[in-house]
Amino acid sequence: MKVDPAHTIIRFLGGANRVAMILNCDATRIYRWEYPAGRNEGKDGLIPPKDARKLLEYAEAEEIDLRPEDFFDASRLREQLEETVAPTPEQAA
Q1: Per-domain residue ranges for the chain?
Q2: What is the maximal distance between C-alpha atoms in the chain?
Q3: Residues whose CB is less than 8 angstroms from the CB of residue 3 and which lie 6 or more positions away in sequence, other chains included
């Protein structure tokens, strides 16, 4: 089970490998954010503050709409992701 807000932020930024590249670290570290506490060194959906700051700086430089509040409640990002994935009625027909 993957835990939010980390899971949604990782998806929003392009996946664990992309986030690992941004932070210059191994992707396994990124996956741990998504795990419940007590499982594989899980972080219970929380992104460490120093990494969150780097991700916010990256998003600002790349003009990506990532906000500090998304690190506590990722529902806004989740809605954006669903809009880009869900087909429109015209596409479904």
Answers
A1: 6-92
A2: 46
A3: 34, 35, 36, 42, 44, 45
45: left (phi over 0), alpha (psi -120 to 50) or beta: left
Rounded to whole angstroms, the Cα distance separating 84 from 93 reads 17
For tokens 């949604």, the residue is 8
Read off the pLDDT of residues 13-66 as tens digits, 9 standing for 90 and up.
Answer: 999 999 999 999 999 999 999 999 988 788 999 999 999 999 999 999 999 999
DSSP string across the chain:
---TTHHHHHHHTT-HHHHHHHHTS-HHHHHHHHSPTTSTT--TTPPPHHHHHHHHHHHHHTT----GGGGT--HHHHHHHHHHHSPPHHHH-
Q: How far apart are CA 40 and CA 17, in angstroms?
A: 18
Look up the pTM and report it: 0.85
